Amino acid sequence: MFWRPKPVAPPPAGDDAVSPGMRTAAAWAWRFLVVIAAAGVLVWIIIQLRLIVIPVIIGVLLAALLVPYAGWLTRRLRFPRWLAITTALLTLIGVVTALVWLVVAQVRAGWPSLRDRSMVAFDEFLAWLSTTFGLSESEIIDWINTLVGELDFSTDGPLVSGALSVGSTAAEVLAGTVLVLFSLLFFLIDGPGIWRFVVRLFPRRARTAVDGAARAGWITLTNFAKVQIFVAFVDGVGIGLIAFLLGVPLALPIGVAVFLASFVPFVGALVTGALAVLIALVYNGPFIALLMLAGVLLVQQVEGNVLQPLVMGSAVRVHPLAVVLAVTAGGLLAGIPGTLFAVPVVAFVNVFVRYLAAGRWRTTPKPTLSDVLPPPDSPSSADQERT
């Protein structure tokens, strides 16, 4: 018998030359890049249309708050629908107007003492600089005048151009406010009809799933709006009351500012807390400022460790790290509006995706609050977490 070598198979060509694992990784990679590119284009379009998108989103958030209120007026007090909608809008406008009036009236009443105390504090600061660094008051004044002289007050300078841009900004704010009110009005009048039109844009087979998931997200959004107002109210009352008890001027405007800024997570509390401590430092001295700082930290700790887990935890089932990252990303992409919308958008998307992934739209096409936010220890909640 003659020995014959085994035939050698030719090397693989084309797709056969790539291992199955690499083919799977490549398939995931290009799909991931396509999704990221589509998301980037969507974000770019939203940024370009921000003067329209931001007022509409604000209108949606306000509708999430006022729709249950108008429904309560219709069910409990037997208001006609048009009267319930009108009452809800007038309540919103009245509350905002009252808050603005309180702040303006308090600031105007305290302006003379604010001016006098600021001058005294400035003189004390000059004396401290002179004592600490051995500088005469005339040298400090000359240094300040030189610094002011270096500022560019020409027509093309940043200060003048920034001042001129205030007019356009005010016009944009006014136009945005009108668009918010119009959007909110139509959301209250024909919100279900608008949503049915949006659902019809999707393929017929996907409409039931999209409608059920969006309803679940909307329930989460309405619950978040109510809870956020409660948390902001506690922050504003707590810090404002501490300022009042410590004898810090402008305690009411401080409380209102904290209430409004609390809708911006992390950043709002930090800025308004620093403002309260600064006012206490200027008016009442370092000791009261330290007490004010301790009070601000106490209120923030109570909110973060007691209210947020007990109340906000049931409204937004999102990990705190995800909230921090979402707020940071929203601030980088859209500034202050991005930080304001980050948490509600993440909460909506979280519930939307989880509802779709669990397939609950097949059995519960029209979810209720108990379906979307079950108690933390219930079996349905545990099943959702495993899912």
TrEMBL record:
<feature type="transmembrane region" description="Helical">
    <location>
        <begin position="173"/>
        <end position="198"/>
    </location>
</feature>
<keyword id="KW-1003">Cell membrane</keyword>
<protein>
    <submittedName>
        <fullName>Putative PurR-regulated permease PerM</fullName>
    </submittedName>
</protein>
<keyword id="KW-1133">Transmembrane helix</keyword>
<feature type="transmembrane region" description="Helical">
    <location>
        <begin position="285"/>
        <end position="302"/>
    </location>
</feature>
<keyword id="KW-0812">Transmembrane</keyword>
<feature type="transmembrane region" description="Helical">
    <location>
        <begin position="229"/>
        <end position="248"/>
    </location>
</feature>
<dbReference type="GO" id="GO:0005886">
    <property type="term" value="C:plasma membrane"/>
</dbReference>
<feature type="region of interest" description="Disordered">
    <location>
        <begin position="367"/>
        <end position="387"/>
    </location>
</feature>
<dbReference type="InterPro" id="IPR002549">
    <property type="entry name" value="AI-2E-like"/>
</dbReference>
<feature type="transmembrane region" description="Helical">
    <location>
        <begin position="82"/>
        <end position="104"/>
    </location>
</feature>
<feature type="transmembrane region" description="Helical">
    <location>
        <begin position="28"/>
        <end position="46"/>
    </location>
</feature>
<feature type="transmembrane region" description="Helical">
    <location>
        <begin position="322"/>
        <end position="353"/>
    </location>
</feature>
<comment type="similarity">
    <text>Belongs to the autoinducer-2 exporter (AI-2E) (TC 2.A.86) family.</text>
</comment>
<dbReference type="Pfam" id="PF01594">
    <property type="entry name" value="AI-2E_transport"/>
</dbReference>
<keyword id="KW-0813">Transport</keyword>
<dbReference type="GO" id="GO:0055085">
    <property type="term" value="P:transmembrane transport"/>
</dbReference>
<keyword id="KW-0472">Membrane</keyword>
<feature type="transmembrane region" description="Helical">
    <location>
        <begin position="52"/>
        <end position="70"/>
    </location>
</feature>
<feature type="transmembrane region" description="Helical">
    <location>
        <begin position="254"/>
        <end position="278"/>
    </location>
</feature>
